[in-house]
Amino acid sequence: MIGAVSRRVLITGGNAGLGLALAKKLARHHKLLLSGRKPESEVAGILPRDAGYILADQSSPQQSAEALVRGVHDFGWDSLDNAVLNAGIGIVPDDGLDSTEAIRRTLDVNLLAAMLQAKALFPLLEKSRGTLTFIGSVAHSGSTTIPAYAASKAGLHGLGRALRSEWKGKVPVQVLHPGPAKTEMHDKAGYDPGHMRALFLEANDVAAMMAAAIAARRSPVTLSWARYLCGGAFLGRRL
Ligand SMILES: NC(=O)c1ccc[n+]([C@@H]2O[C@H](COP(=O)([O-])OP(=O)(O)OC[C@H]3O[C@@H](n4cnc5c(N)ncnc54)[C@H](OP(=O)(O)O)[C@@H]3O)[C@@H](O)[C@H]2O)c1
After folding, report:
1. How many angstroms separate the alpha carbon of residue 11 from the centre of ligand 1?
2. How many domains does the chain have?
């Protein structure tokens, strides 16, 4: 039973938005290591008490993977029960076409970093048969306003499927696709959802559905209004 024991959980992008909301949910029962791009001094006040923090900028994908592994060992852990690769960005192009720089940055942060992190974290996960979770997006099936973002999330979807089969019997792999949620990601992306924002799910509710989906280890799972209305934030097993 997953919920019975305290787990060692790593969450990338754990200092804001959905990652932080998930961390706050898990903090009561589990040990947490969170990562982000901002220095620890900027985020220490908002992180759950006792959570460790790793500075790992995913715009340098290989260095971010090395920083995570180093950070896990420096925290005194030799294995992981869960790694939630959640950090991500979006960049809305002015004219519908991303610049080469924006495409590279989106793919580096959202896809290449997650691929290299997954590979680097595999031995730590395998040791305790831990679960690897990619946070994708409903945009993986295509989105008109953010093509590079959609491509990065489609890549994560494919990667999740491939690793789920390749690592079968060693490390369970899943990809979760949230729908629009009330975080600062859209502002940072340069996207104003206008009155549509009122229809976005609360970050806490998406985080609750993430926790239940992680415990269930199924993949892929869409975390949208349809799941929410079926009780997805309240029912099911909990991590
Ligand atoms: N919000 C939504 O509507 C929505 C919908 C579907 C999927 N998602 C996905 O959910 C995940 C979390 O999104 P969110 O809404 O919580 O966004 P958010 O509030 O903007 O938080 C993004 C997180 O990613 C980290 N991050 C960004 N760039 C980074 C970099 N270069 N290196 C390391 N960390 C970096 C941020 O760290 P810093 O604060 O240190 O920069 C922050 O912790 C993303 O993968 C996103 O694509 C979100």
Report:
1. 11
2. 1
